[in-house]
Amino acid sequence: NQLQGYVATGTTVGPKEVRTGPNPIWVELETTRINTQADRDSLAARLAVLNRQLEELRGRLSRLTQIESENSTLAGNREVLSASIREFQQRETQARADNELVRAGADNVRVIERAQPPLKGKSLKIPLLAAVFLLAGFTALCVGLLRIFTRSGFVTPASAGRTLELPVLAVAPLKTR
Prior knowledge:
This protein is mostly helical. The chain is 69% helix and 0% strand. The protein has helices spanning 2-9, 24-103, 125-150, 157-164.
């Protein structure tokens, strides 16, 4: 009878195993879903923090650009003021020196006009030409002396006789180069 029931149901042996408890595939899928949501939430929080830091850096960059502009303006003003101070100090020093001369009894010297460099320069062509001729003469003298002292032979048979204090017995013809 029991066999007849098995044959009618299509199972020949009966239930092999009865599963109890949670489905492991569903548990794995649910765990993956929860982990993915947690990763998504942490990445969203991290993105928010990075966006906030980026905005802070942009604000800081804008402040630094403004400060740099002010700094360059102030540096230019400082240079102008420094030049004005130097000019003022020079004029003050000159005025003091003039007053000291007057007080020291240099009454016979009056400053009529301050010394200034000439407006039109003098031509230096003649002194430069003289210097060029002197240099050319010196160079020619040096070349002539160098040629005389480095010559390997004598110019004439008589100069050979005088220089060596020996009689000249024969003269060879001059070689052409």
